[in-house]
Amino acid sequence: MSGAGPISRLVDEFARLPGIGPKTAQRLAFHVLNAPPEMARGLARALVEAREKICRCSECCDLTDSDPCPICRDPRRNREILCVVEQPRDVIAMEKSRGFKGLYHVLHGAISPMVGIGPGDLTVRDLLERLAGKNVREVILATNPNVEGDATALYLARLIKPAGIKVTRIAHGLPVGASLEYADEMTLSKALEGRQELG
Amino acid sequence: MSGAGPISRLVDEFARLPGIGPKTAQRLAFHVLNAPPEMARGLARALVEAREKICRCSECCDLTDSDPCPICRDPRRNREILCVVEQPRDVIAMEKSRGFKGLYHVLHGAISPMVGIGPGDLTVRDLLERLAGKNVREVILATNPNVEGDATALYLARLIKPAGIKVTRIAHGLPVGASLEYADEMTLSKALEGRQELG
Question: What are the pLDDT digits (tens) for B92-101?
Protein backbone atom coordinates (compact mmCIF):
# COMPACT_ATOMS: atom_id res chain seq x y z
CA MET A 1 0.00 0.00 0.00
CA SER A 2 1.49 3.31 -0.96
CA GLY A 3 0.90 6.61 -2.77
CA ALA A 4 -2.42 7.99 -3.97
CA GLY A 5 -5.16 5.44 -4.45
CA PRO A 6 -8.53 4.42 -3.05
CA ILE A 7 -7.07 3.78 0.42
CA SER A 8 -5.36 7.15 0.77
CA ARG A 9 -8.44 8.88 -0.63
CA LEU A 10 -10.54 7.17 2.05
CA VAL A 11 -8.00 8.15 4.73
CA ASP A 12 -8.10 11.76 3.48
CA GLU A 13 -11.90 11.85 3.55
CA PHE A 14 -11.99 10.52 7.12
CA ALA A 15 -9.34 13.06 8.14
CA ARG A 16 -11.62 15.91 6.99
CA LEU A 17 -14.06 15.09 9.81
CA PRO A 18 -13.68 17.18 12.97
CA GLY A 19 -11.48 15.66 15.68
CA ILE A 20 -10.18 12.92 13.36
CA GLY A 21 -6.40 13.20 12.90
CA PRO A 22 -4.36 11.39 10.22
CA LYS A 23 -3.58 8.35 12.43
CA THR A 24 -7.22 7.90 13.47
CA ALA A 25 -8.31 8.35 9.85
CA GLN A 26 -5.91 5.57 8.80
CA ARG A 27 -7.20 3.33 11.58
CA LEU A 28 -10.82 3.92 10.53
CA ALA A 29 -10.02 3.30 6.86
CA PHE A 30 -8.28 -0.02 7.54
CA HIS A 31 -11.09 -1.05 9.86
CA VAL A 32 -13.63 -0.44 7.09
CA LEU A 33 -11.45 -2.35 4.60
CA ASN A 34 -11.20 -5.35 6.92
CA ALA A 35 -14.88 -5.31 7.91
CA PRO A 36 -17.62 -6.96 5.80
CA PRO A 37 -18.52 -4.85 2.73
CA GLU A 38 -21.95 -4.13 4.27
CA MET A 39 -20.26 -1.80 6.75
CA ALA A 40 -18.77 0.52 4.10
CA ARG A 41 -21.98 0.42 2.06
CA GLY A 42 -24.13 1.06 5.15
CA LEU A 43 -22.16 4.14 6.17
CA ALA A 44 -22.03 5.40 2.56
CA ARG A 45 -25.80 4.98 2.20
CA ALA A 46 -26.52 6.68 5.54
CA LEU A 47 -24.30 9.63 4.56
CA VAL A 48 -25.95 10.25 1.20
CA GLU A 49 -29.46 9.62 2.50
CA ALA A 50 -29.07 11.89 5.53
CA ARG A 51 -27.54 14.69 3.46
CA GLU A 52 -30.30 14.45 0.84
CA LYS A 53 -33.36 13.98 3.04
CA ILE A 54 -32.58 16.27 5.94
CA CYS A 55 -33.84 19.86 5.86
CA ARG A 56 -34.73 22.47 8.46
CA CYS A 57 -38.19 22.32 10.01
CA SER A 58 -40.08 25.39 8.77
CA GLU A 59 -41.37 25.98 12.32
CA CYS A 60 -38.57 25.27 14.80
CA CYS A 61 -35.56 25.23 12.39
CA ASP A 62 -34.42 21.87 13.81
CA LEU A 63 -33.01 19.35 11.33
CA THR A 64 -35.65 16.88 10.20
CA ASP A 65 -36.56 14.51 7.37
CA SER A 66 -40.24 15.52 7.50
CA ASP A 67 -41.50 19.11 7.63
CA PRO A 68 -42.85 20.07 10.15
CA CYS A 69 -40.66 17.91 12.38
CA PRO A 70 -42.19 15.21 14.66
CA ILE A 71 -42.02 17.47 17.73
CA CYS A 72 -43.75 20.44 16.06
CA ARG A 73 -46.37 18.00 14.68
CA ASP A 74 -47.05 16.31 18.02
CA PRO A 75 -50.50 17.43 19.33
CA ARG A 76 -49.51 16.52 22.92
CA ARG A 77 -46.78 19.20 23.09
CA ASN A 78 -47.55 22.47 24.88
CA ARG A 79 -47.50 25.16 22.18
CA GLU A 80 -47.37 28.01 24.71
CA ILE A 81 -43.78 27.35 25.79
CA LEU A 82 -40.78 27.62 23.46
CA CYS A 83 -37.33 26.39 24.43
CA VAL A 84 -34.58 28.14 22.45
CA VAL A 85 -31.39 26.08 21.99
CA GLU A 86 -28.21 26.54 19.99
CA GLN A 87 -27.96 23.23 18.13
CA PRO A 88 -30.02 20.22 16.99
CA ARG A 89 -27.94 18.06 19.37
CA ASP A 90 -29.25 20.19 22.25
CA VAL A 91 -32.82 19.23 21.31
CA ILE A 92 -31.76 15.58 21.57
CA ALA A 93 -30.21 16.24 25.00
CA MET A 94 -33.34 18.07 26.21
CA GLU A 95 -35.65 15.33 24.94
CA LYS A 96 -33.60 12.71 26.76
CA SER A 97 -34.09 14.61 30.03
CA ARG A 98 -37.87 14.23 29.53
CA GLY A 99 -38.30 17.44 31.56
CA PHE A 100 -39.77 19.56 28.78
CA LYS A 101 -43.09 19.16 26.99
CA GLY A 102 -43.21 22.40 24.97
CA LEU A 103 -41.78 23.20 21.54
CA TYR A 104 -38.22 24.11 20.52
CA HIS A 105 -36.48 26.74 18.47
CA VAL A 106 -33.01 25.93 17.13
CA LEU A 107 -30.71 28.93 16.59
CA HIS A 108 -27.97 26.95 14.79
CA GLY A 109 -25.26 28.72 16.77
CA ALA A 110 -24.68 31.47 19.28
CA ILE A 111 -23.69 35.11 18.90
CA SER A 112 -19.91 35.26 18.86
CA PRO A 113 -18.26 38.49 17.65
CA MET A 114 -14.84 36.83 18.05
CA VAL A 115 -15.55 34.41 15.19
CA GLY A 116 -17.85 36.78 13.34
CA ILE A 117 -21.21 35.16 14.14
CA GLY A 118 -23.94 37.77 14.54
CA PRO A 119 -27.73 37.50 15.00
CA GLY A 120 -28.13 37.48 11.20
CA ASP A 121 -26.29 34.14 11.02
CA LEU A 122 -28.75 32.54 13.43
CA THR A 123 -32.49 31.84 13.10
CA VAL A 124 -33.39 34.91 15.21
CA ARG A 125 -35.68 36.37 12.55
CA ASP A 126 -37.60 33.06 12.27
CA LEU A 127 -37.98 33.06 16.06
CA LEU A 128 -39.42 36.60 16.14
CA GLU A 129 -41.83 35.85 13.29
CA ARG A 130 -42.92 32.74 15.12
CA LEU A 131 -43.52 34.68 18.35
CA ALA A 132 -45.51 37.38 16.50
CA GLY A 133 -47.92 34.89 15.00
CA LYS A 134 -48.56 32.39 17.80
CA ASN A 135 -49.84 32.53 21.38
CA VAL A 136 -46.52 31.84 23.08
CA ARG A 137 -46.65 32.52 26.82
CA GLU A 138 -43.05 31.77 27.76
CA VAL A 139 -39.68 31.54 26.02
CA ILE A 140 -37.02 29.51 27.84
CA LEU A 141 -33.53 30.48 26.74
CA ALA A 142 -31.50 27.24 26.92
CA THR A 143 -28.36 28.40 25.14
CA ASN A 144 -25.10 27.04 26.59
CA PRO A 145 -23.98 28.51 29.96
CA ASN A 146 -20.82 30.10 28.52
CA VAL A 147 -19.91 33.58 27.24
CA GLU A 148 -21.50 33.19 23.80
CA GLY A 149 -24.61 31.43 25.10
CA ASP A 150 -25.15 34.02 27.86
CA ALA A 151 -24.68 36.89 25.39
CA THR A 152 -27.15 35.31 22.98
CA ALA A 153 -29.69 34.82 25.81
CA LEU A 154 -29.37 38.47 26.90
CA TYR A 155 -29.71 39.67 23.31
CA LEU A 156 -32.85 37.57 22.74
CA ALA A 157 -34.36 38.59 26.09
CA ARG A 158 -34.12 42.27 25.13
CA LEU A 159 -35.83 41.57 21.79
CA ILE A 160 -38.61 39.37 23.14
CA LYS A 161 -39.58 41.02 26.46
CA PRO A 162 -41.11 44.16 24.85
CA ALA A 163 -43.70 41.87 23.20
CA GLY A 164 -44.99 41.02 26.67
CA ILE A 165 -43.79 37.41 26.58
CA LYS A 166 -42.27 35.88 29.71
CA VAL A 167 -38.57 35.17 29.09
CA THR A 168 -36.68 32.74 31.31
CA ARG A 169 -33.12 31.45 31.31
CA ILE A 170 -32.34 27.80 32.03
CA ALA A 171 -30.87 27.59 35.57
CA HIS A 172 -27.14 27.32 36.12
CA GLY A 173 -27.52 23.86 37.55
CA LEU A 174 -25.02 23.13 34.80
CA PRO A 175 -21.38 23.72 35.67
CA VAL A 176 -20.49 27.12 34.19
CA GLY A 177 -18.29 26.88 31.10
CA ALA A 178 -19.64 23.40 30.32
CA SER A 179 -21.56 22.35 27.24
CA LEU A 180 -25.27 21.43 27.22
CA GLU A 181 -24.49 18.47 25.03
CA TYR A 182 -22.46 16.68 27.70
CA ALA A 183 -24.73 17.34 30.71
CA ASP A 184 -26.37 14.33 32.34
CA GLU A 185 -30.13 14.03 32.27
CA MET A 186 -30.67 14.77 35.99
CA THR A 187 -28.66 18.00 35.82
CA LEU A 188 -30.60 19.08 32.75
CA SER A 189 -33.92 18.36 34.48
CA LYS A 190 -32.83 20.33 37.57
CA ALA A 191 -31.66 23.24 35.46
CA LEU A 192 -35.02 23.34 33.73
CA GLU A 193 -36.98 23.31 37.02
CA GLY A 194 -34.91 26.13 38.54
CA ARG A 195 -35.26 28.51 35.60
CA GLN A 196 -35.44 32.22 36.48
CA GLU A 197 -37.20 35.10 34.76
CA LEU A 198 -34.75 37.44 33.07
CA GLY A 199 -34.36 41.07 34.33
CA MET B 1 -34.93 15.78 15.55
CA SER B 2 -36.04 12.61 17.33
CA GLY B 3 -36.56 8.89 16.96
CA ALA B 4 -35.39 6.71 14.07
CA GLY B 5 -34.67 8.53 10.85
CA PRO B 6 -31.82 9.40 8.50
CA ILE B 7 -29.95 11.32 11.23
CA SER B 8 -30.05 8.56 13.83
CA ARG B 9 -29.16 6.00 11.17
CA LEU B 10 -26.10 8.09 10.27
CA VAL B 11 -25.20 8.44 13.96
CA ASP B 12 -25.53 4.65 14.39
CA GLU B 13 -23.32 3.96 11.37
CA PHE B 14 -20.60 6.29 12.66
CA ALA B 15 -20.85 4.70 16.10
CA ARG B 16 -20.02 1.29 14.58
CA LEU B 17 -16.52 2.52 13.75
CA PRO B 18 -13.80 1.63 16.28
CA GLY B 19 -13.12 4.27 18.94
CA ILE B 20 -16.21 6.31 17.98
CA GLY B 21 -18.66 6.53 20.89
CA PRO B 22 -22.27 7.74 20.64
CA LYS B 23 -21.41 11.40 21.45
CA THR B 24 -18.61 11.55 18.87
CA ALA B 25 -20.84 9.81 16.32
CA GLN B 26 -23.52 12.47 16.90
CA ARG B 27 -20.94 15.24 16.53
CA LEU B 28 -19.65 13.77 13.25
CA ALA B 29 -23.18 13.31 11.88
CA PHE B 30 -24.18 16.91 12.62
CA HIS B 31 -20.91 18.14 11.16
CA VAL B 32 -21.62 16.29 7.92
CA LEU B 33 -25.20 17.65 7.85
CA ASN B 34 -23.97 21.22 8.27
CA ALA B 35 -21.09 20.88 5.79
CA PRO B 36 -21.51 21.29 2.02
CA PRO B 37 -23.13 18.21 0.40
CA GLU B 38 -19.83 17.44 -1.37
CA MET B 39 -18.38 16.33 1.95
CA ALA B 40 -20.95 13.58 2.56
CA ARG B 41 -20.83 12.49 -1.07
CA GLY B 42 -17.00 12.49 -1.09
CA LEU B 43 -16.75 10.27 1.97
CA ALA B 44 -19.53 7.99 0.68
CA ARG B 45 -17.78 7.61 -2.69
CA ALA B 46 -14.38 6.97 -1.09
CA LEU B 47 -15.93 4.28 1.15
CA VAL B 48 -17.62 2.39 -1.65
CA GLU B 49 -14.70 2.77 -4.05
CA ALA B 50 -12.09 1.65 -1.51
CA ARG B 51 -14.17 -1.33 -0.43
CA GLU B 52 -14.79 -2.41 -4.03
CA LYS B 53 -11.36 -1.86 -5.54
CA ILE B 54 -9.10 -2.96 -2.70
CA CYS B 55 -7.95 -6.58 -2.57
CA ARG B 56 -4.97 -8.44 -1.14
CA CYS B 57 -1.78 -8.48 -3.19
CA SER B 58 -1.27 -12.08 -4.33
CA GLU B 59 2.42 -11.84 -3.40
CA CYS B 60 2.76 -9.89 -0.14
CA CYS B 61 -0.90 -9.99 1.05
CA ASP B 62 -0.87 -6.20 1.58
CA LEU B 63 -4.04 -4.30 0.66
CA THR B 64 -3.83 -2.85 -2.84
CA ASP B 65 -5.95 -1.64 -5.74
CA SER B 66 -3.63 -3.28 -8.30
CA ASP B 67 -2.30 -6.84 -8.08
CA PRO B 68 0.64 -7.24 -7.60
CA CYS B 69 0.94 -4.15 -5.44
CA PRO B 70 3.26 -1.23 -6.41
CA ILE B 71 5.99 -2.39 -3.99
CA CYS B 72 6.03 -6.01 -5.25
CA ARG B 73 6.03 -4.67 -8.85
CA ASP B 74 8.88 -2.22 -8.25
CA PRO B 75 12.05 -3.56 -10.00
CA ARG B 76 14.29 -1.47 -7.72
CA ARG B 77 13.28 -3.35 -4.58
CA ASN B 78 15.62 -6.03 -3.22
CA ARG B 79 13.77 -9.34 -3.66
CA GLU B 80 16.16 -11.23 -1.36
CA ILE B 81 14.92 -9.60 1.85
CA LEU B 82 11.38 -9.95 3.19
CA CYS B 83 10.05 -7.83 6.03
CA VAL B 84 7.14 -9.53 7.82
CA VAL B 85 4.67 -7.12 9.47
CA GLU B 86 1.32 -7.53 11.18
CA GLN B 87 -0.80 -4.94 9.36
CA PRO B 88 -0.98 -2.85 6.17
CA ARG B 89 -0.53 0.28 8.32
CA ASP B 90 2.85 -1.12 9.41
CA VAL B 91 3.96 -1.19 5.75
CA ILE B 92 3.07 2.51 5.54
CA ALA B 93 5.07 3.22 8.71
CA MET B 94 8.09 1.26 7.40
CA GLU B 95 7.96 2.98 4.01
CA LYS B 96 7.92 6.39 5.72
CA SER B 97 11.13 5.48 7.60
CA ARG B 98 12.79 4.93 4.17
CA GLY B 99 15.12 2.45 5.91
CA PHE B 100 13.99 -0.65 4.01
CA LYS B 101 14.35 -1.45 0.33
CA GLY B 102 13.24 -5.08 0.28
CA LEU B 103 9.75 -6.57 -0.02
CA TYR B 104 7.06 -7.04 2.62
CA HIS B 105 4.78 -9.75 3.84
CA VAL B 106 1.63 -8.74 5.70
CA LEU B 107 0.32 -11.26 8.24
CA HIS B 108 -2.98 -9.42 8.90
CA GLY B 109 -2.66 -9.94 12.63
CA ALA B 110 -0.55 -11.67 15.25
CA ILE B 111 -0.91 -14.99 17.03
CA SER B 112 -3.05 -14.41 20.10
CA PRO B 113 -4.50 -17.47 21.85
CA MET B 114 -6.36 -15.16 24.27
CA VAL B 115 -8.62 -13.87 21.48
CA GLY B 116 -8.50 -17.10 19.47
CA ILE B 117 -6.18 -15.98 16.65
CA GLY B 118 -3.94 -18.83 15.53
CA PRO B 119 -1.47 -19.18 12.62
CA GLY B 120 -4.32 -20.35 10.39
CA ASP B 121 -5.99 -16.94 10.70
CA LEU B 122 -2.85 -15.19 9.42
CA THR B 123 -1.11 -15.37 6.03
CA VAL B 124 1.53 -17.77 7.37
CA ARG B 125 0.87 -20.40 4.67
CA ASP B 126 1.28 -17.75 1.93
CA LEU B 127 4.56 -16.70 3.51
CA LEU B 128 5.92 -20.27 3.54
CA GLU B 129 4.87 -20.88 -0.06
CA ARG B 130 6.54 -17.64 -1.05
CA LEU B 131 9.79 -18.60 0.72
CA ALA B 132 9.77 -22.07 -0.89
CA GLY B 133 9.56 -20.69 -4.41
CA LYS B 134 11.84 -17.64 -4.34
CA ASN B 135 15.48 -16.94 -3.51
CA VAL B 136 14.91 -15.14 -0.25
CA ARG B 137 18.10 -14.68 1.75
CA GLU B 138 16.74 -13.00 4.89
CA VAL B 139 13.40 -12.65 6.63
CA ILE B 140 13.10 -9.69 9.00
CA LEU B 141 10.37 -10.24 11.56
CA ALA B 142 8.93 -6.78 12.23
CA THR B 143 5.87 -7.77 14.23
CA ASN B 144 5.02 -5.44 17.12
CA PRO B 145 7.32 -5.60 20.19
CA ASN B 146 4.60 -6.90 22.51
CA VAL B 147 3.53 -10.36 23.75
CA GLU B 148 1.57 -11.31 20.62
CA GLY B 149 4.14 -9.89 18.21
CA ASP B 150 7.05 -11.60 20.00
CA ALA B 151 5.17 -14.92 20.09
CA THR B 152 4.41 -14.62 16.37
CA ALA B 153 8.05 -13.83 15.60
CA LEU B 154 9.27 -16.85 17.58
CA TYR B 155 6.72 -19.11 15.91
CA LEU B 156 7.73 -17.93 12.42
CA ALA B 157 11.45 -18.17 13.21
CA ARG B 158 11.04 -21.84 14.14
CA LEU B 159 9.20 -22.51 10.88
CA ILE B 160 11.57 -20.60 8.59
CA LYS B 161 15.03 -21.35 10.01
CA PRO B 162 15.02 -25.06 9.01
CA ALA B 163 14.81 -23.92 5.36
CA GLY B 164 18.25 -22.36 5.79
CA ILE B 165 16.99 -18.78 5.53
CA LYS B 166 18.48 -16.13 7.82
CA VAL B 167 15.78 -14.92 10.24
CA THR B 168 16.18 -11.60 12.09
CA ARG B 169 13.99 -9.71 14.53
CA ILE B 170 13.64 -5.94 14.31
CA ALA B 171 15.66 -4.40 17.18
CA HIS B 172 13.98 -3.27 20.38
CA GLY B 173 14.86 0.32 19.65
CA LEU B 174 11.12 0.67 20.02
CA PRO B 175 9.83 1.09 23.57
CA VAL B 176 8.63 -2.37 24.66
CA GLY B 177 4.84 -2.66 24.76
CA ALA B 178 4.48 0.08 22.16
CA SER B 179 2.92 -0.20 18.73
CA LEU B 180 4.87 -0.04 15.43
CA GLU B 181 2.23 2.23 14.02
CA TYR B 182 3.03 5.09 16.41
CA ALA B 183 6.83 4.93 16.27
CA ASP B 184 8.64 7.91 14.80
CA GLU B 185 10.67 7.45 11.63
CA MET B 186 14.12 7.78 13.29
CA THR B 187 13.29 5.10 15.88
CA LEU B 188 12.04 2.80 13.16
CA SER B 189 15.22 3.30 11.13
CA LYS B 190 17.41 2.61 14.19
CA ALA B 191 15.41 -0.49 15.05
CA LEU B 192 15.93 -1.77 11.54
CA GLU B 193 19.71 -1.18 11.59
CA GLY B 194 20.14 -2.91 14.96
CA ARG B 195 18.31 -6.10 13.99
CA GLN B 196 19.64 -9.35 15.49
CA GLU B 197 19.63 -12.90 14.15
CA LEU B 198 17.19 -15.11 16.02
CA GLY B 199 18.25 -18.10 18.14
Answer: 888 888 888 9
Span B77-192 CATH architecture: 3-Layer(aba) Sandwich (3.40)
**Domain B6-53 in CATH: superfamily?**
RecR Domain 1 (1.10.8.420)
Domain boundaries of chain B, sorted by first residue: 6-53, 77-192
- The sign of the torsion formed by the CA atoms of A48, A54, B12, B25 equals positive
Dist CA A152 CA A117 (whole Å): 11
Section A36-58 average pLDDT:
91
Contact B1, A91 (CB under 8 A): yes
Three-class SS of residue A80? strand
ipTM above 0.85, yes or no: no
Global pTM? 0.71
**Cβ <8 Å between A26 and B53:** no
Taking CB atoms and an 8 Å cutoff, what residues of chain B touch A50?
6-7, 9-10, 29, 32-33, 40
Number of CB pairs, chain A paired with chain B, less than 8 A apart: 175
Among all residues of chain B, which has the CA nearest to that of A41? B48
**Inter-chain contact B33–A51, Cβ cutoff 8 Å?**
yes
pLDDT tens sequence across A130-176: 998 878 999 999 998 788 998 999 999 999 999 889 999 887 666 66
Any residues with CB less than 8 A from the CB of B62 and at least 6 apart, and which?
A1, B56, B69, B71, B88, B91, B104, B106
If we measure between CA atoms, which residue out of A171, A146, A143 comes closest to residue A157? A143
Q: Which of A13, A18, A24 sits opposite B46 (nearest CB)?
A: A13
The model's pLDDT over B71-116, given as tens digits with 9 standing for 90+, comes to: 999 999 999 999 999 999 899 888 888 888 999 999 999 999 888 9
- From chain B, the residues in CB contact with A16 under 8 A are 39, 42-43
Q: Do B12 and A40 touch (CB under 8 A)?
A: no
Which of A32, A48, A85, A69 has its CA nearest to residue B52? Answer: A32
- From the candidates A1, A28, A39, which should be mutated to test the interface with B, based on the most B CB atoms within 10 A? A1
